[in-house]
């Protein structure tokens, strides 16, 4: 569709904009410390520093995970038929409406953390711009995650997103792919965005009375472990409505698997892409970065946005190792679903098995 082609062309053009910027004369910012190609970007350096120090605490923790989640829940709220502003910040401005949507369960906690910063810098950034900036900076807190472009100039949101546009963990695979497809995402891009984001994420409120339950064994690393853990037999499984199945057969104690992840890993339309990311760190980082950039532009007019990618900190190099099997597990415990490629060989972690700790919450003392 034309909408999809336009998005793809824009995403491809953004890296070129950054390269061109590097070849342009830089000017010293009013703070006397930073410099920028575009003076409009100078105002963002203190915002980024504040986010890094005082929201994210210089770590890939609960606040960083939440900021990334907010990017998705705000941006996906657009439809060619139902309307919505996409990446416009409506989830903040019209929170009294959008937080009533079942798909946005737990977003109130994220806005409790991020909201005061959006208000603090309201004279510098629109809500849509701030959410995307915070998401880009959050990724630079997580080793292995990509450094993505950031563009500024999104207008103020004018209305709440229509309900039913955010895919939910218990949706069937056809519904999930159709929803993403409406806004120009291929099945392969869905796997990259969903799998990559869940590599540094945890469940809040989905599992009853539990917060920060990781989706894989390494929630503070952007890595490919999730593409292994989700395929293990007996992994803790939740339908997204509070009910858990297979509680006594948890393959990785302390983690939870969403139904949507399990389906993406096993459905014929997406299984081979899911498997292809196992121990392909660079491939995942690139595909995920392109997908999140695409999300950040939904509903926006590219020609009216200013490229301020230069304010985003450098990515942290990947510090982890290869994806592995939990103690006592073998490849026989993997439910491989790709018929055209053998599952990669994996080492098994030495025993005994341990329980993955919950992600510390930002409000913890």
TrEMBL record:
<feature type="binding site">
    <location>
        <position position="86"/>
    </location>
    <ligand>
        <name>Ca(2+) 1</name>
    </ligand>
</feature>
<feature type="compositionally biased region" description="Polar residues">
    <location>
        <begin position="351"/>
        <end position="365"/>
    </location>
</feature>
<dbReference type="GO" id="GO:0000302">
    <property type="term" value="P:response to reactive oxygen species"/>
</dbReference>
<feature type="active site" description="Proton acceptor">
    <location>
        <position position="73"/>
    </location>
</feature>
<dbReference type="InterPro" id="IPR002016">
    <property type="entry name" value="Haem_peroxidase"/>
</dbReference>
<keyword id="KW-0560">Oxidoreductase</keyword>
<dbReference type="GO" id="GO:0004601">
    <property type="term" value="F:peroxidase activity"/>
</dbReference>
<dbReference type="GO" id="GO:0034599">
    <property type="term" value="P:cellular response to oxidative stress"/>
</dbReference>
<feature type="signal peptide">
    <location>
        <begin position="1"/>
        <end position="21"/>
    </location>
</feature>
<feature type="disulfide bond">
    <location>
        <begin position="60"/>
        <end position="142"/>
    </location>
</feature>
<dbReference type="InterPro" id="IPR010255">
    <property type="entry name" value="Haem_peroxidase_sf"/>
</dbReference>
<feature type="disulfide bond">
    <location>
        <begin position="41"/>
        <end position="308"/>
    </location>
</feature>
<feature type="binding site" description="axial binding residue">
    <location>
        <position position="198"/>
    </location>
    <ligand>
        <name>heme b</name>
    </ligand>
</feature>
<keyword id="KW-0479">Metal-binding</keyword>
<keyword id="KW-1015">Disulfide bond</keyword>
<dbReference type="GO" id="GO:0046872">
    <property type="term" value="F:metal ion binding"/>
</dbReference>
<feature type="binding site">
    <location>
        <position position="218"/>
    </location>
    <ligand>
        <name>Ca(2+) 2</name>
    </ligand>
</feature>
<dbReference type="InterPro" id="IPR044831">
    <property type="entry name" value="Ccp1-like"/>
</dbReference>
<feature type="disulfide bond">
    <location>
        <begin position="29"/>
        <end position="42"/>
    </location>
</feature>
<keyword id="KW-0575">Peroxidase</keyword>
<dbReference type="Pfam" id="PF11895">
    <property type="entry name" value="Peroxidase_ext"/>
</dbReference>
<feature type="disulfide bond">
    <location>
        <begin position="272"/>
        <end position="338"/>
    </location>
</feature>
<feature type="binding site">
    <location>
        <position position="223"/>
    </location>
    <ligand>
        <name>Ca(2+) 2</name>
    </ligand>
</feature>
<feature type="binding site">
    <location>
        <position position="216"/>
    </location>
    <ligand>
        <name>Ca(2+) 2</name>
    </ligand>
</feature>
<feature type="binding site">
    <location>
        <position position="74"/>
    </location>
    <ligand>
        <name>Ca(2+) 1</name>
    </ligand>
</feature>
<keyword id="KW-0325">Glycoprotein</keyword>
<feature type="domain" description="Plant heme peroxidase family profile">
    <location>
        <begin position="124"/>
        <end position="342"/>
    </location>
</feature>
<keyword id="KW-0964">Secreted</keyword>
<dbReference type="Pfam" id="PF00141">
    <property type="entry name" value="peroxidase"/>
</dbReference>
<dbReference type="InterPro" id="IPR024589">
    <property type="entry name" value="Ligninase_C"/>
</dbReference>
<protein>
    <recommendedName>
        <fullName>Peroxidase</fullName>
        <ecNumber>1.11.1.-</ecNumber>
    </recommendedName>
</protein>
<feature type="site" description="Transition state stabilizer">
    <location>
        <position position="69"/>
    </location>
</feature>
<dbReference type="InterPro" id="IPR019794">
    <property type="entry name" value="Peroxidases_AS"/>
</dbReference>
<keyword id="KW-0349">Heme</keyword>
<dbReference type="GO" id="GO:0042744">
    <property type="term" value="P:hydrogen peroxide catabolic process"/>
</dbReference>
<keyword id="KW-0106">Calcium</keyword>
<feature type="binding site">
    <location>
        <position position="90"/>
    </location>
    <ligand>
        <name>Ca(2+) 1</name>
    </ligand>
</feature>
<keyword id="KW-0732">Signal</keyword>
<feature type="region of interest" description="Disordered">
    <location>
        <begin position="345"/>
        <end position="365"/>
    </location>
</feature>
<feature type="binding site">
    <location>
        <position position="199"/>
    </location>
    <ligand>
        <name>Ca(2+) 2</name>
    </ligand>
</feature>
<dbReference type="InterPro" id="IPR001621">
    <property type="entry name" value="Ligninase"/>
</dbReference>
<keyword id="KW-0376">Hydrogen peroxide</keyword>
């Amino acid at each position: 569709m034309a909408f999809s082609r336009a998005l793809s062309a824009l995403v491809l053009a953004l890296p070129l904009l950054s390269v061109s910027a590097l070849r342009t004369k830089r000017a010293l910012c009013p703070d006397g410390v930073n410099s920028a190609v575009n003076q409009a970007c100078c105002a963002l350096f203190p915002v980024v520093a504040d986010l890094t120090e005082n929201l994210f605490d210089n770590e890939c923790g609960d606040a960083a995970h939440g900021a990334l989640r907010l990017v998705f829940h705000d941006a996906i709220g657009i439809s060619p038929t139902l309307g919505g502003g996409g990446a416009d910040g409506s989830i903040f401005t019209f929170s009294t409406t959008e937080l009533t949507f079942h798909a946005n369960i737990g977003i109130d906690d994220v806005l409790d953390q991020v909201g005061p910063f959006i208000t603090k810098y309201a004279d510098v950034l629109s809500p849509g711009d701030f959410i995307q900036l915070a998401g880009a900076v959050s990724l630079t807190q997580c080793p292995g995650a990509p450094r993505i472009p950031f563009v500024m100039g999104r207008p103020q949101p004018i209305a709440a997103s229509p309900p039913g546009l955010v895919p939910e963990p218990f949706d069937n695979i056809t519904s999930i792919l159709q929803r993403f497809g409406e806004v120009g995402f291929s099945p392969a891009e869905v796997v990259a965005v969903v799998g990559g984001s869940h590599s540094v994420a945890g469940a809040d409120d989905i599992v009853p009375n539990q917060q920060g339950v990781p989706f894989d064994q390494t929630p503070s690393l952007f890595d490919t472990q999730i593409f292994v853990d989700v395929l293990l037999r007996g992994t803790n499984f939740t339908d997204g409505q509070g009910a858990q199945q297979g509680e006594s057969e948890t393959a990785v104690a302390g983690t939870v698997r969403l139904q949507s992840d399990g389906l993406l890993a096993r459905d014929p339309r997406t299984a081979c892409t899911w498997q292809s990311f196992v121990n392909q760190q660079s491939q995942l980082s690139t595909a995920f970065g392109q997908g999140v950039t695409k999300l950040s532009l939904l509903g926006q007019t590219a020609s009216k946005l200013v490229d301020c990618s230069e304010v985003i900190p450098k990515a942290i190099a990947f510090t982890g190792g290869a994806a592995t099997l939990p103690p006592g597990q073998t490849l026989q415990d993997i439910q491989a679903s790709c018929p055209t490629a053998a599952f990669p060989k994996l080492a098994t972690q030495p025993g005994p098995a341990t329980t993955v700790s919950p992600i510390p919450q930002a409000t913890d003392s």
